[in-house]
Amino acid sequence: MTEKQFETKVRKFLTDLGCWELKTWSNGIQREGVPDILVCCKGYFVGIEVKAANGKPSALQLWNIEKIREAGGIAVVLYPNQFDEFKALMQSIKSRPLNAHINQNLLDKKGK
Predict the structure, then answer these.
(1) 112 lies in a domain?
(2) Is the pLDDT of residue 90 over 80?
(3) Which domain holds residue 59?
């Protein structure tokens, strides 16, 4: 399975689970080393660097994963042979109470 095929499989799983996901690209405008997929699921932030079986993350990708973890998010380098464990992790997150301790509706009011 190619990295692209695996990424498509991961994104479909996340969408089917009801998570918000965003595919990122390094294109000279966006910061390099950001995980391939950014996810918000049940109030949790998850960064996923997708790799094919023989792939290896760069030092910058690993640095970004560490920074996400330091900020309280979840970040992983995901290989195809870990997909079942990843699905279990995400299903566990989805079954938790909503991780929203801030009344964000206060921000929905327009300035007066």
Answers:
(1) no
(2) yes
(3) 3-99
